[in-house]
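Good day; I would like, with your permission, to put a structural problem before you. A protein sequence and the C-alpha cells that stand for its backbone fold form the material at issue. The record follows directly beneath this note:
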Amino acid sequence: MSTTHNHSHDHAHDHAPGHAHAHAHHDHGISDIGDPGSRRRTKLLFAFALTTVMMVAEVFGGLWSGSLALLADAGHMMVDSLALLLAFVGAWMATKPADARRSYGYGRMEVLIGFVNALSQFVLVGWIIYEAITRLMHPGEILSGVMFVVAIFGLLVNVVVLRMLHGHAHDDVNLAGASLHVLGDLLGSVAAVLAALAIRWKGWVWADPVLSLLVSLLILNSAWRLLRLSAHILLEGVPDGMDCAEVETSLRAAHPSIRNVHHLHVWQLASGSRMATLHAELTEPGQSAEALLAINQLLLQRFNIQHVTVQVDPNGECFDQAAGCVGHGHL
C-alpha cells in the first residue's frame, strides 16, 4: 500500500450565494495510486520470463507424453504469462501522471486488468472441462515418466514465482489477478504430478482428466472472488470492511463546529487509493478551515482515505438538489 503524506490544501470556490465548495485533499501522484515501485515491476517482469519459458516446456512435454494435465497446466501458464505481462504494464501505467483528460491518472488500469484476468480464467476453465470430458470418453496412452519430470519442474517454477508475488496488498487487484493465475497454475502442476504417479503406479489413465477437472473447479472459485472484487471497485462500491454509518458518525465528532454530515460517498479509485466526498454543516462558518483540516486528518488516519472533497453548506441549506440532498443527514 502506498505511503501518504499528511498535508492538506483548503480552498473554496463560490457557486452560489452563501455556497462554498471546499476541498481537503492530498496531492495525487505515484504514492496515491497503488504501489508501482520499480522493485515490484522488476519482480513481475522476471516472473513473466520464468513462466513463459516453463509454458513452452510444458507444451512440448504435454504433446510428447499425451497428458491433458500438462497441456492444461501449459494453458494456465500461457494465461499466467499474459496476466503477469499485463500486471507489469498496469504497474508501469500507474506511474504515469494525471493529464488533462485523465485527472486521476491511470491507476484504475490495474483494476481493469484484474477484471480481465478473472474473465480469462473462466474461458480457460471451460476449455479444460471440455477436454477432460473428451479424454474420459476416449482415453489415450500417456507417458507418465515424461509427464512427471515436466510437472515437477513446473511446480518448482510456480513456487518461485508465487513467492516473488507474495505480500501484495489485499485490495491490489492487479497483483491479486497475477497471483491467482500463478496459484491456479501451481495447483495444476500438483495435479499433473499426482496424475503421473497414479498412471505410473496404478495404471489409472483416467486420473489425468479427473484431476484436471478438480483443479478447474478450485480455480473457478478464486476467479469468481477476483471478478466480484474488481467489479465492485469499477462500480465505485464502498471499500470492503468500511461502514459508511461509522464514518459519518466519526465525522460529526471530528470538530466542535461540525453540526451535521450528509451526502457521504466513499469509494476506491484503485488499490489502496480510497476517496470520499461529503457535505458538512457548520455551526461556526468562520471555523471552516479548522473543520476541514479535522475532517481530512480523521479520514486519513482512521479510515486511510487519502483524497477528500468537502462541500460546506451554509446555514444548513444544501443547494445540491440534483444529487437528492435535502439539507439533512442521509447516506
